[in-house]
Amino acid sequence: MSAHLFCFSAKGRALCDKIEKFLQEKGYEVTRQPSTDLAARTRECFQKGNLLIFVCACGIAVRAIAPLVRDKTEDPAVLVCDDCGNFVISLLSGHIGGANRAAVAVAEFLGATPVVTTATDRNGKFAVDEFAAMRGYLISDMKLARAVSSAILERDIPFFSDLPYRDALPQGLKASQGGEPLGIALSYREKAPFLKTLFLRPRVLTLGIGCRRGTSAEKIGRCVEEVFCAEGLNLSCIAKVASVDLKADERGLLEFCERQGLPTSFYTAAELSALHGNFTHSERVLRVTGTDNVCERAAVCGGEKLLVAKKIVDGVTVAVGLREEYVAF
């Protein structure tokens, strides 16, 4: 994570010294920006940074970032502090960018007052975009997310989850199995439980794959899509791809993973064979790889449970494992 500090006075520089040390302790790479050529410096930092902090009048920061603001899903967090250290204002990207959380943390460190103006926070309601950003869930529809954030100020919104949760639901949500006009679904499945469903997509699926030598990335992609379509699963919920280590140099498989931006895990035949469970046995696979089943065993070798057993599509074997985790609010 990177943070960029801007200041324009001696008092501002002294305050930046404190903030810089605090952010470094939190794991940020911090740069101090010169006070000259503010527009160019802001543009550069806005494009590459996670957090921008201006120690100055709010108007200076607003004018500096105004031409650069694009979308709440892309903009970095921007804070403004007065040079006396009395207030820390969350100016931009409060939820997804984390400016609200950063403002509270910096203010607590300085003994200042955090200024957070987002409606859900001021009313003590659940903020769906912040929740998703903090946990790495994908939001299916930002327009619908805005509608949910508006509606939650007036009434509790139905919430459905494929994943278990121990905690009580936060203010603004009520548990539901579906059927209402509008609701939130934390789900790795395609089926929409509500008439208008805002999906939050958790990356909890492991794709176990076996294939013949020389299988193309295109064929693997088509086979995976066919299986996910048949099983009603969402492709964006794949966390990683797993296979036997004999496939660690399989060009088509590696190309498929690279195109999809998916990490890989390769296991030895001994590691796969050591797993206990009911797996589809194949003598041919055993002779070739040293283990009786590649896709199912690979799909659960990281501790997952088997969600979809072995499917064979055009010579490619596919299985899906589910990483069971509790939702934390």
Task: Tell me what you see in this structure.
There is one protein chain. With 329 residues, the chain is of the alpha/beta class. It folds into three domains: 2-117, Rossmann fold, CATH 3.40.50; 128-201, Udp-n-acetylmuramoylalanyl-d-glutamate--2,6- Diaminopimelate Ligase, Chain: A, domain 1; 205-322, Nucleotidyltransferase, domain 5 (2-Layer Sandwich), CATH 3.30.420.180. It contains twelve helices and 16 strands. The strands form three sheets. Strands 2-1-3-4-5-6 form a six-stranded mixed beta sheet, sandwiched between helices. The chain has a five-stranded mixed beta sheet with strand order 7-11-10-8-9, with helices on one face. Strand 15 (305-313) and strand 16 form a beta hairpin. Helix 8 (217-231) crosses helix 9. The radius of gyration is 24 Å and the shape is elongated. The relative contact order is 0.09.
